[in-house]
C-alpha cells in the first residue's frame, strides 16, 4: 500500500542519543512509521494520494507531548480578560477597566492569569483594584488555578457575606471584621460564586477548545496528558474527533476527590481505556495539597505566614487507601503534590501500595516545587515519575527570592525550588509540561525554561541555575519520558518503524540552538498519526 505521508530531505533526531539517524527520509501509513531510509526509496513509496513534503533539511523529532495540561477547562477559563502579562496593579486595573467599558449592564466580567506578585506588598483582595469593579460582578482567576478574586457585587449575588467552614482546605478570606476580601481559596469556596456566574454554552466551549488545540498543534505539540475530565471535557473530545477536528493525542486522567467513596473509585477504574482513536481515559488525578502562593500547600513546617500546614484530604490515610485500591487495579495515579509534606505522603502511599502488590504501575507526582534530599532519592527507588513544570519557576518566582512564593517559604526552602536536575541525577523519570492555562503551552518555551531557568524577560537572572536540564534532557522530558510514564515506550517517543507517526518538525536542531533562542525556533510541521495538523507557510 502507498504511504500516507512521505518526508524527504530531513534530519531525523534521536532523543535517546541526541544524534542524527543515518537516514534522510521517513514514510508513514496507517498512523505509524513504516520506513526510514533515503529520499529515493522513500519517494518510491508515495502514491497518488500520499502527502509528500520536502523538508529541505528541517529536523524531525518524535512528537512533543505536554505532560500536564487542561485543554477544555483551560479553554473555558481563558475566555475572559488575559491578565497574565500584568506585572503591577496599575496594569491590572487598566486591563480590567478596558474590559468593563465593553460590558453590557449587569453582565459578568471574567479574567484569568492574575499573578499575586502584581499586588506588591498589598494584600490580595478586591479592594486593591480600586473602583474599577464597583457594581460589576466579576470573577478573576489567579494564575495558580486554585483561587479566585471576586468583586463585591459577585459576592453579593452569591450570598457570600462572611467566613464559612469547609470540609477540605478551602477558605473565604475575610478581614479582621469578618468581611470577605474577595479572595477565595480552593474549589469549595470558589464554587460558591462560580455557581451563580453565567457559563458559556457547550458549543462555545467546544469552539474555544478547538481553537486552543489548533494553537497547540501549531506550537509543535502532538499530544498531551490532560489532568482532568471535568464538566463536558470527554464529550468535547468525542465531538471534535467526530468532526475530524482533534489535532492532538490526549491521555485523560479524571479527578478523584476526597469525598469519593469506594463505589466512586470503582467507577474510575471502570472508566479506564474508554475514549476514541486519539483520546482515552488512562489514569486518575488526585490532589494532596493546594499551592504555596495561597498558603494551601502541605509543608513539613508551616510557611512564614503560619499557613500551608495541612493536607487537602481531610483524612490523608483515606488517600493512601485510594491509591492502594487504584494500584491493585493497575490504574496509574497522578497526584498534585507541591509541598514537601505532600510529596512525602504520596511516596509513602505508593510504597505501601507496592508492599501489598509489587506489580509495577507507573505512578507520578505533579509539580514537586520544594522537597529535601531524602525525598528526591525516593522517586527512582519507587519507580515514581516526577512531572515538572519548569516555567512555573521561571515566570512566578525570582532569583532574589523577593516573590510571594519565595517569601512564604523562606530562604532554605525557596533555595530548593523545582529540583529538576537533582531528580534526574537521582534516577527519577522527569516529565516536562506546562500545566496550561497556568503557564504558556508552547513546548519549546517549556524546554527553554528547563534549560535556562529564566523568565520570558531573559535579561533577568535565573532562579536556581544549578537545577537546569541539559538540552538533551529537556528533549527527553517531552518525548521519551512522556511516552514511558504513559506505558507507551514501545509505541512512542522514538523515530522507529512501527512507532506512531506523531512528529514535530523544526527549522533547526533544538540541541544546538542556544538556550535563550530555543523558544523562538520555528515549528514548520506537526504530524499526528501520519496526518499534518500544522504546516508552516511556504513548506
UniProtKB/TrEMBL annotation:
Residues in Amidohydrolase domain copies: 52-533
One GO MF term: hydrolase activity, acting on carbon-nitrogen (but not peptide) bonds
PANTHER family per UniProt: IMIDAZOLONEPROPIONASE, PROTEIN LONG AFTER FAR-RED 3
Name this protein carries in UniProt: Putative peptidase M38 family protein
Organism taxonomic ancestry: Bacteria, Bacillati, Actinomycetota, Actinomycetes, Kitasatosporales
